[in-house]
Structures are given as C-alpha cells and as structure tokens.
Amino acid sequence: MKVGVVSDIHANLVALETVLAEMGPVDALWVCGDTVGYGPDPSDVLALLAERKATIVAGNHDRAVARGEDLDFFNPPAAVAAKMHQRWLSPAERDMLAALPRTLETNNVTLCHGSLRDPLWEYVTNPRSAAASLALARTSHCCAGHTHVPSLFRADGRAEPGRVRYDVAYALAPRAFLNPGSVGQPRDGDPRAAYAVIDLAMSTVTFHRSPYRLEETQRRIRERGLPSIFADRLAFGL
Ligand code: ZN
User: Which domain holds residue 53?
Assistant: First the structure.
C-alpha cells in the first residue's frame, strides 16, 4: 500500500494539483493539517481533498479559520488571512474544518499537525521532541507538519532534520517521526512544493520536491487582496 503524505497546503491549489499529479496513483492520501490560511484558494483545496478522500487532521490554521480558535497567537498578517478565509468559506466548509480530529491513528501511524504533546502548536525540530511524541504514540510511527520543513527522526537516533535527501527511500524502522514539509508555503529556503510517499509494505518513506507555477499562486494571492507577504515569500521558500 502506497500512501501520499502532505501537510501545510495553506490554500495553495496550484501547488497541491502539481504535487498530486507528480505523486501519481496512491492508495491513500494523508494530510497533516493546515489545509487553509495564507493562500488564495481555500474552498478549492478542500474540495480537491474531499474528492481524493483524504484523511486529514486539524492544524492551527484550520481551527483558527473554522472557529476563530487561538487567533491571538497569530502574527498580524496571518490573522488577517485567517479571517478572510473565514468569510470566504461556506458554513458547511467551516463545519468540515471544525470537525477535523487533532490526532488520528491509521495503519500503525499516528497523524497530527504539531506533535502528540501539543497537536496544534508544538514545533518538532529536534530528536528530543520527536522522541517525546513517539513515547506517547500507540503506533510505531508519527507523521506531522507545522514546521514547513521536511524532516525525519528515527528512534535509533538517525536524524535527518531539515536536510532530508529527495527521491531516496528511508527505512522507517524501528520507529520514525516524519514531516513531509509544506506543499503550499515551504520555509526551508527551497520554493518547490514538498511531499512524501510512504510504502507501508516495504516500511519506507521517500521525500520529494516539485517545482510548480508559483507565479500563478502569487498572482491569485494579490488578486484576492491577501497580505502580499504571503505572495512574496513563495519565491524564496521562506
Ligand atoms: Zn502551517
């Protein structure tokens, strides 16, 4: 069974479409939160994920848009974008976002946005915090997002934080905490969209990057009147 793993799409439809096309056929699609916030096309992203029958956990931006939750923690332009998305989405779309679980177990993997200690807000950027989440997991592995940086931490200490290699299969054994990086707002200095594919039979994960028409997303962000910083930073992946 092959599973596409994506996170932090942030309403960037062009990037999501490119990633799904490059990923090719998969048996399941897992989304580690932050489907909305920042970007120009929240409704279209939610529709495409529904069409692909994606398994989704809540991110802090999903909660902020759906329920106004924790908006005080957002920097000013992020809060402006979240409130705009709140207005653009239909009640049914907001209800769908509000109902997303904070964590979810599937196929011996726990999905969350931040960590298992703090599913909405903790940034897992080092082996210690990854190990703390794995200690709380009832599954062998965890997939998360939130940092917008692809990373892999394994329980045997072989960590690849922020510098995973692409198109290379990594063994998940014995236990792994992985982050596929961000589809729609990468923050590791690489503007390409990030995703990962897990092969459950082989127990491996492979990270990938896809160039996409980011100028089109930038144009849409400006056209919709979102804070221009979210367009500008796409060019740098920061
Ligand atoms: Zn995010």
Answer: 2-58+99-235
Reading phi first (left if > 0) and then psi (alpha if -120 to 50, else beta), residue 153 is in beta
Q: What b-and-e string marks burial along 72-96, b requiring 16 or more CB atoms within 10 Å of the CB? A: eebeeebbebbebbbebbeeebbeb
pLDDT digits (tens, 9 = 90+) for 63-116: 999 998 888 888 999 999 999 999 999 999 999 999 999 999 999 999 999 999
Task: Give residues whose Cβ lies within 5 Å of ion ligand 1.
Answer: 8, 34
155 in any annotated domain: yes
| pLDDT one-digit tens code per residue, 7-48 | 999 999 999 999 999 999 999 999 999 999 999 999 999 999
Q: How many domains does the chain have?
A: 1
Domain assignment present for 160: yes
Q: What is the model's pTM?
A: 0.95
Residue 14 pLDDT: 98
Q: Calculate how far, in angstroms, residue 75's C-alpha sits from the geometric centre of ligand 1.
A: 13
CATH number at residue 124: 3.60.21.10
> In whole angstroms, what is the distance from residue 27 CA to residue 121 CA?
29
Q: How far is the CA of 35 from the centre of ligand 1 (A)?
A: 8
Identity of the amino acid at 103? T
